[in-house]
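F.,

This is the one I mentioned.
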């Protein structure tokens, strides 16, 4: 396999750091690594394969000579710099929401729609973290019987917001225990000991952008506009790993036993479902894992063809960094970089 000059934009952030770790773990064929961040981090070094590498400033010229760039510095940075990278013949795998719904940008979860990768025109979008873990678990169900409707409620970790949010949760938790009234800076309300039904911005429909991402991205990934999805996305005081309660209405009946059987054979999924012995997926256990864990698989008795399940995934790994690297691995294997 060829070796590639790889840039990571947002290398000092929560997702960027995870990307660096996973590139190393999976021995991705990196010729030279270029960590990029804002001008604030210029001159800082990061460790990669035992070497200290200086962090550069993310600007258009930085992409000269780069083959592959992972973007994990937020939507604004992607909007500004991803087209500059593409102009310089870089394959961009973008973690932000900037280009996901553009018709000529593949939106990919490699276990679900890898064939879309070959259609790239220089840019491939990584779906939203909550969408990735949900569609991964929906895929084997969808292959067995088309899905009519999905009702999802999420319980999302603060690491999805970034390093500052993790620090804020830790600080607020300590303050509340000491009887100090905490100050909310990252979120509109205190996140410690709380649950915020508000992720990303509200629009005129009363839904948040995070909720719409789950609706629109699911349809695009399955290339099936007929799947109805309705979502409530909630931020909870968990450091890492998103949990989701998902209700699925299928066209044909799938029993919980059959669902367990097909899910346990599906790539990237681990069925963890023995409630009598208190075995079900938990955010703390799933943090650091590559698989998405599925448990509490049971029939929805209120409709003829319904299932309920609890889906937990590491939002920094499968929900962001790992999925992006799997896209790049597929592109490398198929000579698409
Ligand atoms: P920096 O550390 O220099 O601010 P997180 O999501 O964990 O908060 O991380 C965000 C990442 O995006 C960090 O690596 C951050 O770099 C980077 N970043 C933020 N703003 C910019 C920018 N304007 N240009 C390039 N990188 C940026």
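My design for it:
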């Amino acid at each position: 396999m060829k070796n590639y000059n790889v840039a990571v934009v947002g290398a000092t952030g929560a997702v960027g750091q995870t990307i660096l770790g996973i590139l190393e773990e999976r021995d991705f064929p990196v010729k030279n690594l270029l960590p990029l961040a804002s001008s604030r981090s210029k001159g800082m070094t990061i460790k990669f394969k035992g070497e200290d590498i200086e962090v550069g400033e993310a600007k258009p010229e930085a992409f000269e000579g780069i083959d592959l760039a992972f973007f994990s510095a937020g939507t604004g940075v992607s909007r500004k710099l991803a087209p500059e990278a593409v102009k310089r013949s870089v394959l961009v795998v973008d973690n932000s929401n900037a280009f996901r719904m553009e018709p000529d940008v593949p939106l990919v979860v490699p276990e679900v729609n890898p064939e879309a990768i070959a259609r790239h025109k220089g840019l491939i979008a990584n779906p939203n973290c909550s969408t990735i873990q949900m569609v991964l678990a929906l895929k084997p169900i969808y292959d067995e019987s088309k899905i009519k409707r999905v009702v999802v409620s999420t319980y999302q970790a603060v690491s999805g917001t970034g390093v500052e949010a993790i620090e804020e949760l830790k600080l607020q938790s300590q303050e509340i225990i000491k009887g100090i009234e905490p100050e909310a800076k990252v979120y509109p309300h205190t996140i410690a000991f709380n649950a915020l039904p508000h992720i990303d911005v509200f629009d005129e429909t009363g839904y948040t952008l995070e909720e719409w991402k789950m609706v629109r991205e699911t349809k695009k990934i399955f290339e099936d506009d007929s799947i109805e999805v309705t979502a409530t996305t909630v931020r909870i005081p968990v450091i890492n790993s998103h949990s989701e309660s998902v209700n699925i209405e299928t066209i044909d009946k799938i029993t919980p036993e059959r669902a367990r059987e097909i899910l346990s054979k599906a790539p990237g999924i681990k069925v963890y479902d023995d409630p009598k012995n208190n075995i079900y997926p938990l955010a703390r256990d799933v943090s650091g894992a590559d698989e998405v864990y599925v448990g509490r698989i049971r029939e929805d008795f209120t409709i003829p063809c319904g299932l309920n399940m609890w889906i937990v995934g590491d939002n920094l790994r499968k929900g962001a960094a790992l999925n992006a690297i799997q896209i790049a691995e597929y592109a490398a294997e198929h000579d698409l970089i």
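The mean pLDDT is 98.

Talk soon.
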